[in-house]
Structure of GNAT family N-acetyltransferase:
Amino acid sequence: MENISLRKATIKDKALVVDFDYSLDKVEHIELKREEKITKAILDKECFIILVNNRAVGFVIFDYRFFDQGWIELIIIEEKYRGKGIGGQAFDLICKQCKTNKVFTSTNSSNIQMQKALSKAGFSFAGKINGLDDGDPELFYYKKIKSKKAKN
């Protein structure tokens, strides 16, 4: 059985996290200035390394900027580790540490793999916004959390 865990990224992890993102989509990484976003998330303690048996396989950026609710800004898992339930377990771990009673995230309508992962992890469709990416609407999802820590 694989042990999935999260740990807060430190500035020492920056190259690793940037590489995960860059390897997925070099053009998007550069155009969206993801290195700056990643650096800020690490410094703000909002970036978590996803570990499988203590080996880094991806990262997640999580904050409370979306209407003061838990918000998964970005999750990247190394391609060879996808489809193995790691993302679902990472979602669960993020939800367990969330301070609100809902966690939101979004994905493009073209990202069928992410939509399936969100559905499998218990996220519900919340709505769609056109205009962010031409011809590829953004789909929003949320998950209600039953937690003693929830404050909202």
Observations:
- DSSP finds five helices and seven strands in the chain.
- Strands lie at 4-8, 47-52, 55-66, 69-77, 102-108, 124-129, 138-144.
- The radius of gyration is 15 Å.
